[in-house]
Design a protein that fits this description.
Blueprint: H1 8-16, H2 19-41, H3 46-62, H4 64-77, E1 81-85, H5 88-101, E2 106-109, H6 113-117, H7 120-126, E3 130-133, H8 136-144, H9 160-170, H10 183-200, E4 203-206, E5 210-212, E6 217-222, H11 226-233, E7 236-242, E8 246-247, H12 250-264, E9 272-276, E10 290-296, H13 319-322, H14 325-330, H15 341-352, H16 354-357, H17 369-373, H18 380-393, H19 399-412, H20 415-432, E11 438-439, H21 446-449, E12 454-455, H22 462-481
Parallel strand pairs: 1-10, 2-3, 2-4, 4-7, 5-8, 7-10
Antiparallel strand pairs: 5-6, 6-9, 11-12
Helix pairs in contact: 2-12, 3-12, 9-10, 15-18
């Protein structure tokens, strides 16, 4: 997809004025936060599992080369093929060649953020192969020509009335009196259409939540069963995954699965957790004749050993954006990148460079909710601060912000001058605040006061208030000493 992260501010302003979007975004806060809390509270060892999950991924990242080699060997031993892709272009080329070798005209796809990252659908379509998304949310946005607005709920920005309109526009077989007013009827209609596409497709493409080095297994986690049909009905199954999805053992995978669904959707486990190891064997009743794994780097190895390495622990649960007040306000499309929310504000600059994405790390209140709910304990605010520092060092921040910070730093580095300026400035600002104690407009603060009032200072600085408090605490002692 075309990267539009540099236009985040303009996109966010547009999103705030979109009444339909604002109505749909209300479902994010209502639908995810309470469910996650309930699921986590019901599991006494949840916090310990988070620690274990973090430690497992840290161990993998410290020995990633060894586990990748082990995984390749196990896939090959099971009859599968591993393809190494350094860039998105490499991955697109490899997948296209596999599809062309299978003489595929249509491919079915399970939900996969990594194929969104490499813009696989557009590449296949441009080369005469029709990709059909089988996840309901992905199918809906494919009909609309859009990209996911959430990594686990791609169509969360839509209301069911919009989905019904799209189905009636595209599904020409629909009769006018067919009731599509409820989610169940919409699901039934999509299932009826997609069922035929599964049997027509020669190749099935999925992502992977985990790749198990111990067994050469790929794991997908879904709630619809579409992933199972995608990878078993076609002649060829292609897994596209990034290199950090490696997990050492089946037991390690089971531990991380216990925090994944609870963090993502508030479920104990997702409805379908599917393990695939190699192509169909003689004794198997079904399955693909060929099994291919495309392992994508696309900038991830360059994150190893840096202050952004912790981001590679991400298991794409979406908990950070489910709890992010900025995401709640503007939705996913405003970020202008494949990965929205706090995790996108860290990962997107890592993959695409801070020059194009500098506004994203600034799309945060630094409230810390993202880190507090992350099942892998990723310090997202800290890494966003690192990106802000990089942006400032390279003079990418607006000149007003840079000069404003330099002006403040001049005083902050000189405590006596800072206190003197504050002791004059706070009472002066307090006088202009009026009886409402708020500023409706203020020079050099229009970015704030254009949308909300700015509280006026009380008249004293913090140090002055603290000194007065300490003096009052000492007053009874002084009175006693004089008796």
């Amino acid at each position: 997809m075309e990267l539009a992260a540099k236009h985040f501010k303009a996109s966010a302003t547009k999103a705030l004025a979109d009444a339909q979007l604002q109505k749909a975004l209300g479902n994010v806060e209502k639908g995810f936060i309470g469910k996650r809390k309930k699921a986590a509270d019901a599991l006494p060892e949840f916090e310990a599992l988070r620690d274990n999950a973090r430690d497992i991924k840290n161990h993998v990242l410290a020995h990633l080369d060894l586990y990748l080699e082990e995984y390749e060997a196990k896939v090959t031993a099971s009859g599968g093929h591993v393809h190494w892709a350094e860039t998105a272009e490499d991955a697109r080329r490899i997948v296209l060649e596999i599809c062309q070798n299978a003489n595929a005209k249509t491919v079915t796809k399970g939900k996969s953020m990594i194929t969104e990252e490499i813009a696989l659908n557009d590449h296949l379509s441009a080369n005469g192969i029709e990709p059909v998304e089988t996840d309901l949310g992905e199918y809906i946005i494919q009909l609309r020509g859009e990209h996911p607005s959430h990594i686990i709920a791609p169509a969360v920005h839509l209301n069911k009335e919009q989905v019904e309109d799209d189905f009636r526009r595209v599904h020409t077989h629909l009769k006018a009196d067919r009731d599509l007013s409820e989610p169940v009827s919409l699901l039934s209609e999509a299932r009826e259409v997609l069922r035929k596409r599964y049997f027509a497709a020669d190749v099935g493409i999925t992502g992977a939540n985990f790749l198990i080095a111990e067994t050469g297994t790929s794991v997908i986690v879904t709630n619809e069963g579409n992933g199972d049909l995608t990878q078993t009905l076609g002649k060829v199954h292609v897994v596209v995954a990034s290199i950090e999805k490696i997990v050492p053992t089946l037991e390690d995978t089971a531990q991380i699965l216990r925090v994944l669904a609870r963090s993502a959707t508030g479920q104990d486990m997702s409805v379908y957790t599917t393990f695939s190891t190699g192509p169909k064997r003689e004794e198997d009743p079904d399955g693909p004749g060929e099994y291919h794994v495309v392992l994508l780097d696309n900038g991830r190895s360059s994150m190893l050993g840096t202050e952004y390495q912790d981001m590679l622990r991400c298991i794409r649960c979406g908990a950070c954006m489910n709890h992010c007040p900025v995401y709640h306000a503007v939705g996913g499309h405003a970020y202008g990148s494949v990965y929205p929310g706090p995790m996108g504000a860290v990962l997107t600059p890592s993959l695409n460079g801070i020059d194009e994405t500098g506004q994203l790390p600034n799309a945060s209140t630094f409230c810390g909710r993202c880190e507090s709910v992350c099942p892998m304990r990723i310090p997202l605010p800290k890494m966003m601060r690192h990106w802000r520092e990089r942006e400032f060092e390279r003079n990418l921040t607006p000149s007003t912000a840079r000069y404003g910070l330099k002006f403040w730093a001049f005083f902050a580095k000189r405590p006596k001058l800072y206190r003197l300026a504050a002791s004059f400035g706070m009472p002066l600002l307090s006088m202009f605040g009026g009886t409402s104690r708020r500023f409706k407009s203020l020079p050099l603060a229009g970015g704030w006061t254009r949308y909300r009032d700015l509280p006026a200072p009380e008249g004293r600085t913090f140090l002055q208030a603290w000194a007065q408090r300490e003096a009052l605490k000492q007053e009874p002692l002084n009175q006693g000493a004089g008796q």
